[in-house]
Amino acid sequence: MGKPDAEGHGPSDGLPDLPPEWGRIVVPDDASALASEAAQVRRELRRATGRYAGRRALALPLLVLLVAVLTTLTGLLAVTWPRAGRSTDRPTPAPSPPPVSLTGQALPALDLVDARQSPVPLRGLLPAMIILVDDCGCPDVVIEAVMAAPAGVTVVTVTEGRAVTTAPPVDGVRALADPAGGLRSFLGPGAANALLVDRAGVVTRVLPGIGPVDAYQDDLTALAR
After folding, report:
1. What is the rounded average pLDDT of the residues 22-48?
2. Is the dihedral of CA 30, 33, 37, 41 positive or negative?
């Protein structure tokens, strides 16, 4: 049996005492007497829940707005930053101009050298068929050109450097060397194996590769006119 408390309110049954600031607690025999207090507690809980739900409902649109702003800024940086970087890089080189045809151009006033290293003005040998024997490398082609050339047209063989390649044993061939590389600069690297030049110094035909004589016979004959 529990003992009555100091004020004689009845036994405590071993339970701890309630805080004194709560005052005297009276538990009614009928639970319906607490209906008003229960209703007030429910109202307080609903108000607290409403405030929490309101804050939560407001936070969701703010989060969506923040994500949209960050996505927009990221897209703008992705579009503008590479363009700014490209503008500071080295400029895109302009495409190379197409090679200019040598036909119809004037042959430069070039001085080549003969086997004795004496200068020979190339224009003094016109009209002529000029063959770069470094690229041709076939004496039979030179012989065919000499045999097909009309009277008054010189067949000139040109080697790179100062060493003059011995001409085939056929009259009408003038073997020269181009130590300054002037003729190759005029033609361009790998541009031609031979060219035909009339007596006025104008290139009438460029032969990238010397084929059969029939392919250029008419142009060669026209040089003598």
Report:
1. 65
2. positive
CA distances from 25 to 12, 28, 33, 82 (A): 13, 10, 14, 76
Q: Which residues of 86-115 are buried (b: 16+ CB within 10 A; e: fewer)?
A: eeeeeeeeeeeeeeeebeeeebeebbbbee
| CA angle 193–158–190, rounded 5-degree value | 30
Which string of b and e fits 16-36 if b means at least 16 CB within 10 Å?
Answer: eeeeeeeeeeeeeeeeeeeee
For residues 212 and 120, the answer to whether their CB atoms sit within 8 Å is no
Apex 211 CA angle, 208 and 212, nearest 5: 150
Model confidence band, residue 109 (pLDDT cutoffs 50, 70, 90):
very high
Rg (CA), the chain: 54
Residue 162 has pLDDT above 60, yes or no: yes
Strand ranges of the sheet holding 154-160, from the earlier edge strand across to the other edge: 119-121, 111-113, 173-178, 154-160, 128-132, 194-197, 203-207
Task: Evaluate if pTM is beyond 0.85.
Answer: no
Q: Is the pLDDT of residue 216 over 70?
A: yes
Residue 13: which region, alpha, beta or left (left: phi > 0; alpha: psi -120 to 50)?
left
The burial class, CB within 10 Å (0-12 / 13-18 / 19+), for 151 is exposed
Coil, strand, or helix at residue 207? strand
Q: How confident is the model at residue 79 (pLDDT cuts 50, 70, 90)?
A: low
